[in-house]
Here is the input.
Amino acid sequence: MLHNLQIQKILVQVDTIKSPYEKVKLLKKAINIADGHNDIEWGFDLRKQIIEEEKNTSSCIEGLPAFTWILEIFDQHPDICNESDFMLEYKWMIQAARRNANVSMQQFESIVEDYKTRLLRNGFSLHSYYTSKAQMAIQQNKLDDAKEYLELRKSEKYDDLSFCVACEIHDMVEYEFLAGNIEKAVSLAADIFSGKECCKYIPFQTVCIAVNILNENGLGDSAEQLFKITDFTLGKMEDADMSNIGYIGKLIYFLTGRDKNKAWEMFEKYLPWSINCEDYYDFQFSSGALSLFKGSGTHRLNVNSEISWYKPSGVYELPELYDYYRNQAETLAAKFDARNGCTNFTDELNFRL
Here is the structure.
């Protein structure tokens, strides 16, 4: 039973560390110990914890394989726990799968339908299932499908696996913006913009989408007013909000045309969050940052040495940065469009070029 003590000591260390990345490294070490002793109970609990910690980052490197293991072990040993005990993690992994361009549409649909089966088997409603379906339809720009799923969601009971009210309003606002119903979108978002409905991600994400849509439709003054909300929200951000890196890319794009110095500050400050970030976040950050690098000349940046294009001199050629991020964005756009069966990502990128 010595391995139990080893694992418990690691968990004590985990509790003393703030960085979720460092927590994940320690949890991987504990998982290796558990697996080395064929201790599936520890392996199960530790993998749930690694999913929870990685949720606080912009990446999902360990979470998907960890959850695949959980499903396989549960199906082999259904007495290890109640199936409902890991349904929350399942919900988050569906979001990660949607953001991963290497997960095929067939695989995604299989995952979501398996989730649906387990929801019904455990007495949950299909509320979170329709949210997942609607979010993928929005990503594909299949607005008729998105509208259908959002309507179906309304008829389902709100339960412990439902997304929060703020996130659900965000889905509807994003749909209305994409459908061109700007006034309706802004009206729906009123409780978000006022702060009445909020969560860890909202209103920041909603505002980042809104400022660009409003600005592109000649409503720059309204966009500027909304930006003040993001200024306030960013001031309260901690490392646990690293998953906002894609939305920060949207904000950089908006700011480049209005306050370029501010855009550069934001790029430099949050750039470390883009390291190994998920494909969807990577695309949004890369395509949004492109606007900063147009033209010739150089720019001095205080950049983390872990950044792939880091230079000790701290002086960077703008055309080189432009080519790097354009290649990133084009590669991801092509992969997402091939997966999603549309040109949505390429169209968004071309608009920003």
Notes: The mean pLDDT is 93. The beta strands are 298-300, 315-317.
